[in-house]
Specification:
Elements (H helix, E strand, L loop, with lengths): L1 E4 L2 E3 L14 E5 L6 H8 L7 E2 L6 E2 L2 E2 L5 H8 L4 E4 L3 H4 L6 H12 L4 H14 L16 H12 L6 E5 L7 H18 L2 E6 L2 H7 L2 E6 L2 E7 H6 L4 H8 L39 H5 L5 E4 L2 E3 L6
Parallel strand pairs: 3-9, 3-10, 7-8, 8-9
Antiparallel strand pairs: 1-2, 1-4, 5-6, 10-11, 11-13, 12-13
The structure holds iron/sulfur cluster.
Length: 308
C-alpha cells in the first residue's frame, strides 16, 4: 500500500506478509513511521483518499479483502469480523455523546437488533471490560483515562469480531493503568477466543500479551515468527538493537544502546536493504540487493543477507 503524493509514491507498506491464526496475538513492533498503523488500516481498508493498494492480498477465511467491494467490507467485515481500537482513546470518543450511546450506535449500525437489545448488549460489554453498567450514560469527560480506554475496547467488541486490531492501546496511560488495561485484554482474549493484532513500540507490552511477533522497519517486515524464539535469539540486526535498547529489570545493569540515525524517507527508500545506512553489520551486497525472507528455524523468519 503506497500513498500517492505530488512527489511520487510513499512506499508505506511494502511486501509485508504475516498470518494471524485463531486465538493468536500478533505484536507488530518497530519505530514510529515504520508502517505498523498503515498495515492495520490497509487490512480494514480504512485508508485516506491518496492511499493505493498496489498489489497483494489480505485473506480472511479464503476471501480476499482487497478484491471486496467497499460496501461489502463495510457491511460484512468491519466491526463484525475485524474491529479496531484506535490510537488515543482520549480522542477517539465523541465528547458530546454518552459512552453508552456510542457503543450502542456501533451495534445498531452493523446488526439487525432493536435499541433495547443494543442497550442490554452495551451494558454487558461495559461489564466485560470492568466498568459498571450504570456508567452507560456517562460522558467521556466524566471517566478516567483508563476507563475511556476500556470503553473503546468495549466498542471494538460490540459485534463479536474474530480479530481485534489494537493500535497503541495504552499510550498516554500511566504504568498502573497500562497494566490494568493489558490484564483486561488478556482476559478478553481467552474468554472470547479472540485473535489480536497489537501495534506498539513497547516491546514489554508485546511480551505480556502476544505469542507471535513481527518486527517492522521502513515499511517492511524485518523478522517474524514465534515471540519466544525471536526474544531468545533475535537474528535481524534491527531486532537485536531494538531489544538491547530496552531496559531489563532482571540481571546486571548495563548501558542501554540506541540505534543511530533515523528511519529513511519512504519516498526514496535506500536501495538494497532499507536498514543498511544504520546497520552495524552492513555488507556490500546490502547496499545493492534487497534481501528476501529466509526461514531460519521452524516458525522464525528473517529478512537479512546475513542468513542467505
Ligand atoms: Fe544489515 Fe545487511 Fe542484514 Fe540489512 S541485510 S540488516 S544491512 S546485514
Amino acid at each position: 500500500m503506497y500513498y500517492q503524493t505530488i512527489r511520487g509514491y510513499v512506499r508505506a507498506v511494502d511486501d509485508v506478509s504475516f498470518k494471524v491464526g485463531k486465538e493468536d496475538a500478533l505484536g507488530l513492533a518497530g519505530e514510529s513511521g515504520c508502517g505498523k498503523t498503515s498495515s492495520a488500516l490497509t487490512i480494514l481498508r480504512l485508508l485516506p483518499w491518496n492511499a493505493r493498494i498496489i498489489d497483494g492480498s489480505i485473506t480472511l477465511d479464503g476471501e480476499d479483502l482487497v478484491k471486496m467491494r467497499d460496501k461489502d467490507i463495510r457491511k460484512k467485515i468491519r466491526w463484525k469480523r475485524i474491529s479496531m481500537v484506535f490510537q488515543g482513546a482520549m480522542n477517539a470518543l465523541h465528547p458530546t455523546y454518552s459512552v453508552g450511546k456510542q457503543i450502542t450506535e456501533a451495534i445498531l449500525l452493523h446488526e439487525d437488533v432493536d435499541s433495547k437489545e443494543a442497550v442490554e448488549r452495551t451494558e454487558k460489554l461495559l461489564e466485560l471490560v470492568g466498568i459498571e453498567a450504570e456508567k452507560i450514560n456517562r460522558f467521556p469527560h466524566e471517566l478516567s483515562g483508563g476507563m475511556k480506554q476500556r470503553v473503546v475496547t468495549a466498542m471494538a467488541l460490540a459485534c463479536n469480531p474474530d480479530i481485534v486490531i489494537a493500535d497503541e492501546p495504552t499510550t498516554a496511560l500511566d504504568v498502573i493503568v497500562q497494566a490494568q488495561v493489558l490484564k483486561v485484554m488478556k482476559e478478553l482474549q481467552s474468554k472470547l477466543k479472540l485473535s489480536w493484532i497489537l501495534i506498539t513500540h513497547d516491546l514489554s507490552m508485546i511480551t505480556e500479551t502476544c505469542n507471535r511477533l513481527a518486527i517492522m522497519y521502513a515499511g517492511k517486515v524485518a523478522e517474524y515468527g514465534d515471540l519466544a524464539a525471536i526474544y531468545k535469539e533475535p537474528l535481524h540486526p534491527y531486532t537485536e538493537r531494538l531489544l538491547s535498547a530496552f531496559p531489563s529489570i532482571v540481571g546486571p545493569k548495563s548501558e542501554l544502546s540506541s540505534i543511530p540515525g533515523f528511519p529513511p524517507d519512504l519516498l526514496v527508500p535506500p536501495p538494497g536493504c532499507r536498514f543498511h545506512p544504520r546497520c552495524p553489520k552492513a555488507m556490500d551486497i546490502c547496499r545493492k540487493k534487497e534481501p528476501v525472507p529466509v526461514k531460519a528455524k521452524k516458525d522464525h523468519e528473517v529478512i537479512c543477507h546475513l542468513y542467505t
